[in-house]
Amino acid sequence: MASLRILTVVGARPQFVKAAAISRAIAARDNDINQILVHTGQHFDPDMSQVFFDELGLEPPHVNLGIHGGGHGEMTGRMLAGLERVIVEKRPDLVLVPGDTTSTLAGALAAAKMLVPVAHLEAGLRSFNRRMPEEINRVLTDHLSALLLCPTETAVTNLRREGVVEGVHNVGDVMYDATLFAAAASQDSQILDRLELAEHSYALATVHRAENLADCKTLGEILSFLKQQTRDLAVVFPLHPRTREQIVARGLDLGEILTCDPLGYLDMQRLLRSAAAVFTDSGGLQKEAYFHRVPCVTLRSETEWVETVEAGWNRLWKGPDYAPRREITAFGDGHAAEKAVELLVGFLKCQPRAGSAPLS
């Protein structure tokens, strides 16, 4: 039988990491899968994109749509049109969409409209805050998907509450797979020397969520909180381009916060592993902080990773203090990507092949 054709849609930093874990699992198989990697171009700056491909050993994308900028609707529409053309040309058996970005939703919509099965990697996450674009992307993508690859049992429960029970599987978290991979690969990082930092002498901060950047008052409060932390230890703040733009445009004061350009995946993992604390609005970084057992404060009023809060390693910025810390097994055993690929293959073997009927 010819190789199964899986088209994977990525566009942003976290998706590159997830896709790399899947690609490693596919590469370990006996050539029964042909993966077609499509980069929408959502993150296009070399520090936000190419460095991840280089460090993670991720093959160059077969297609780069080069789509970025503009509002959510405009970007989604342009991606949808571009991805439809790619699906017609490549004729995949399935479209795999990781995460919760605009690229995720566009990939799911394009595939579903063309009757190509969708698999959502990291399905079932919910912050229950519909003001977050990511929450809209998650919900819609889940309800378009034939195969829902969940990172935790909480995610499975969330889907069940919405009536989604078919094709739902708890495979564990591919980001945990990636963290284990990076633990060895990041040993050679010189980021601590470059920033003149000693281990456990600093906190790591990131801010990039639209709801935190759009409101000057909220962003000012976050920066005030970070500046207060510098009284006790250094705060290292890699600046997302959008965050830097908003800080400059509003003339906000960073005080003693140590800023730097966006970091590659391995440098970020090295910096995270030796941090004394993490302050972030990133969903992924909250979880990675737990993987490294670094206390985290989430700069939001809710989190989709409730397990980290319940385990006492994470707390909401304006919420209760930390719960007693404990170890949990919610994120799997480090083989989530392998399990996901097995499910993809099993699913596709029961489906008619894409070449048996025309796409329209």
Give an overview of the whole structure:
Mean pLDDT is 93; it is low at 356-360. With 360 residues, this protein is α/β, with parallel strands linked by helices. A 7-stranded parallel beta sheet has the order 3-2-1-4-5-6-7, sandwiched between helices. The protein has a 6-stranded parallel beta sheet with strand order 10-9-8-11-12-13, with helices on both faces. The protein has 15 helices and 13 strands. The protein has 2 domains: 4-173 and 333-356, Glycogen Phosphorylase B (Rossmann fold, 3-Layer(aba) Sandwich); 186-316, Rossmann fold.
**How many strands?**
13
**Which residue ranges are poorly predicted, with pLDDT under 50 across at least 5 consecutive positions?**
356-360
Specify Rg, calculated over alpha carbons: 20 Å
Count of discrete domains: 2
The proportion of residues forming helix, as a percent range, comes to: 40-55%
The largest beta-sheet arranges its strands as 3-2-1-4-5-6-7
User: What is the global morphology?
Assistant: globular
Q: What kind of oligomer do you see?
A: single chain
* CATH homologous superfamily title of the largest domain: Glycogen Phosphorylase B
Assign the CATH topology of the largest domain: Rossmann fold
* Major β-sheet annotation: 7 strands, parallel
Secondary structure elements and pairings:
Blueprint (H helix, E strand, L loop, with lengths): L3 E7 L2 H15 L5 E7 L10 H7 L6 E2 L7 H19 L3 E5 L3 H12 L4 E4 L11 H12 L2 E4 L2 H9 L6 E3 L3 H12 L5 H4 L7 E5 L3 H4 L2 H14 L4 E5 L2 H10 L7 E3 L4 H9 L3 E4 L2 H9 L4 E3 L7 H5 L3 E3 L19 H14 L11
Parallel strand pairs: 1-2, 1-4, 2-3, 4-5, 5-6, 6-7, 8-9, 8-11, 9-10, 11-12, 12-13
Helix pairs in contact: 1-7, 1-15, 3-4, 4-5, 7-12
